[in-house]
Amino acid sequence: MNDRHNTVVIGGGLAGLISTYLLAKAGREVLLVEKKSYPFHRVCGEYLSNEVLDFLQREDLLPSQFELPQINRFLFSDTAGKSVSTPLDLGGFGLSRYVLDDHIYHKVLEKGGAVQTGVQVESVVFDEKENLFRLELADGSQLRAENVIGAFGKRSKLDKTLNRAFIEKRSPYIGVKYHIKTDFDRSTVALYNFKGGYCGLNTIEEGKVNLCYLGDREQLRKYGSIEAMEREVLWKNPSLRPFFTDSEFLFDKPEVINEINFERKKPVENHILMAGDSAGLITPLCGNGMAMAIHAGKLAAEAILEGKSREEIEARYVHSWKSLFERRLWLGRKVQRLFGSYQASILTRKLIQHVPFISDQIIKNTHGKPF
Ligand SMILES: Cc1cc2nc3c(=O)[nH]c(=O)nc-3n(C[C@H](O)[C@H](O)[C@H](O)COP(=O)(O)OP(=O)(O)OC[C@H]3O[C@@H](n4cnc5c(N)ncnc54)[C@H](O)[C@@H]3O)c2cc1C
Q1: What range(s) does the FAD-binding domain occupy (predicted)?
Q2: In this prediction, what percent of the chain has a pLDDT beyond 90?
Q3: pLDDT of 1 above 60
Q4: Residues within a 6 A CB radius of ligand 1
Q5: Which of 65, 90, 279, 348 is deepest in the core (most CB within 10 A)?
Q6: Residue 111 DSSP code
Q7: Whose CA is nearest to atom 17 of ligand 1?
């Protein structure tokens, strides 16, 4: 196998899959390296903002065998279980990553993109003299590439090898996901607050419901297990509790991740174009990390296709990334603070109820426009 590539994409979440798809579609030689094998579950709320609907439909990247739930209402429950519901201007739809990522992976292959799954990239170094990247994979193979897109998500071994500043900071957050069968309004995305975090619910394909929460690592340590923590902390919200006690849980065990970090990151580091969470994770309560990953994947592919030199590619990418995402990420970090505490969640509920203009503005300013 030829070890030299025009572009290597590291990580096959939405950012990596979309950039690979667009490069392959434009006739560029591209290799995507993903450490897991499709299809697989990920911790994610699986609510997709409609800002990506036109793009996904135009590119035929949505599976057609499902009637996807259209979501146009937002329900907010404070830690005491009192709730308020408000319409969503743009809205979204629900679809599992298990289905969506696998579907796009097959579209990448159809367009002639190469994909290596089940193998991790161990290191990536830019060789200034040769003006190319050298990559080492866990199976011992080595690759060279003119361009590298880093789409390896919120936290990867590579962040350490690249000495990225944020990796030194510990994060208090954990993420947990289930698919359940329960009685839940198809047109609503809900956020139930509890001490130290919040839990999202929305319907996905085949009438299943995604239940996904951001919790506090300290609570997990205190109670010793996910189950005990849920009982002692999440169930204290009386509106959230029935989803745990009266639902059918479809996984044998939950999907869990830790060290979820909302620190600032750079969109280009060591000449790597960082796309999706590897360039910055927006707080999940905004419900548009996937839309941002899709959009960033598109921007990275366009920068490589249109830039005439490395400098131009990087400058184009940084400019478009900053103008679309920098403000949203900043506001997301501020909004994150309104959640997970008793007082703040009551205040937020009252705000949504009595001053809907402010919550509408927050939603507008953390979301992008259809593209
Ligand atoms: C609790 C929680 C709930 C969320 N809910 C929502 C929601 O409802 N809606 C929404 O829009 N967003 C949500 N998000 C955010 C969303 O999940 C992310 O923003 C999105 O998945 C980012 O996509 P990505 O492609 O950047 O990264 P990922 O989807 O994480 O993909 C990164 C990929 O890189 C691979 N990888 C990592 N390191 C290597 C390596 N060294 N070599 C090879 N492969 C590697 C990983 O295996 C992974 O497949 C949520 C996030 C959390 C934590």
Answers
A1: 6-172
A2: 81
A3: no
A4: 10-16, 33-36, 42-48, 120-121, 151-153, 156-158, 175, 200, 212, 214, 260, 276-277, 281, 284, 287-291, 293
A5: 279
A6: T
A7: 44
Longest C-alpha distance within the chain, in Å? 63
**Which residue's entry shows tokens 């991740």?**
257
Name the residue of 290, 329, 336, 363 whose CB sits within 8 Å of the most ligand 1 atoms, as the mutation to test its pocket.
Answer: 290
User: Residue 6 corresponds to which tokens in the numbers above?
Assistant: 């025009």
Encode burial over 262-278: b for 16+ CB neighbours within 10 A, e otherwise.
beebbbbbbbbbbbbbb
Nearest to residue 239, comparing CAs of 110, 77, 33?
77
What's the token pair of residue 86? 């408000």
Burial of 64 (0-12, 13-18, 19+ CB in 10 A): exposed
Contact in structure between 2 and 140 (CB atoms under 8 Å): no
Residue type, position 121, single letter: V
Q: Is the dihedral of CA 329, 330, 335, 339 positive or negative?
A: positive
- pLDDT tens digits, one per residue of 301-346: 999 999 999 999 999 999 999 999 998 888 888 877 776 677 888 8
Name the fold adopted by 4-170+260-366: FAD/NAD(P)-binding domain (3.50.50)
Q: Where are the domains of the chain?
A: 4-170+260-366
